[in-house]
Design goal:
This protein is α+β, with helices and mostly antiparallel strands. Helix content is about 25%, strand content about 35%.
């Protein structure tokens, strides 16, 4: 599968239908593009070589990030979906910063290209948006490794941790915004806060260098 075929497949989906069925199709497309990893490096080179494209995607990238670097490879014109590459850092690289339980306001599917990570998923037993309180219960604790695909639906609290000595690199497709907000949970207190979702970016030359590195699956 080529990069263009991958994007055309994603564009053919109804992103207003935020359902597991939609993301079953996303998973199939991720499996297809994973057979040709050189297409990812070529796409990164296209972005680096196109100043307009780079400026369009740059505000949606996050590098350097303490826990996970985010690089955008495609952003739908209506922002209905996006394709990103993530680098989940090792404990040594993130200065042993502990990730927090959080939930996204969009659903996603992610394919692990290199490395592995542990994910814990939670269900919401009770929540008060007014008081910013929530009671969560652990429902799944698993480890995902190279070539596995993980899908999460909008609003599902989870946490991802890289226990390995190398970074975990994933190809990630996020769906349409569902308006639930990006929540960060304080488990012991039974509370949550909303994240502003703002990203920090390095100087452009450094950002381009790192975009090419992750396109080559380099930690």
């Amino acid at each position: 599968m080529t990069w263009n075929e991958f994007i055309k497949g994603l564009e053919s989906l109804d992103w207003k239908q935020d359902t597991p069925e939609t993301f079953n199709k996303v998973e199939a497309l991720l499996k297809g593009i994973s057979q040709n990893p050189e297409e990812l490096e070529k796409r990164c080179q296209e972005i680096v070589s196109n100043p307009d494209l780079l400026q369009n995607y740059k505000p949606h990238m996050s590098y350097p990030n303490k826990i996970m670097d985010i690089f955008v490879l495609y952003l739908a014109p209506d922002n209905g979906f996006a394709v990103r590459m993530h680098r989940l850092k090792t404990k040594q690289d993130n200065a042993h910063k502990i990730p927090q339980v959080h939930s996204h306001e969009w659903s996603y599917s992610t394919l692990i290209l290199k490395g592995s990570y542990q994910e814990r998923n939670y269900q919401v037993n009770s929540m008060s948006e007014e008081n910013h309180t929530a009671q969560l219960a652990l429902i799944e604790d698993h480890v995902l490794t190279a070539n596995e695909i993980n899908t999460g639906m909008a609003g599902t609290p989870h946490i991802t941790i890289n226990h390995e000595e190398e970074s975990c690199i994933t190809l990630f497709v996020r769906g349409n915004f569902q308006g639930t907000g990006f929540k960060v949970y304080q488990m012991e207190e039974g509370t949550f806060t909303f994240s502003d979702g703002k990203f920090k970016q390095a100087e452009e030359t450094v950002l381009c260098r790192e975009l090419m590195r992750i396109g080559r699956l380099q930690s």
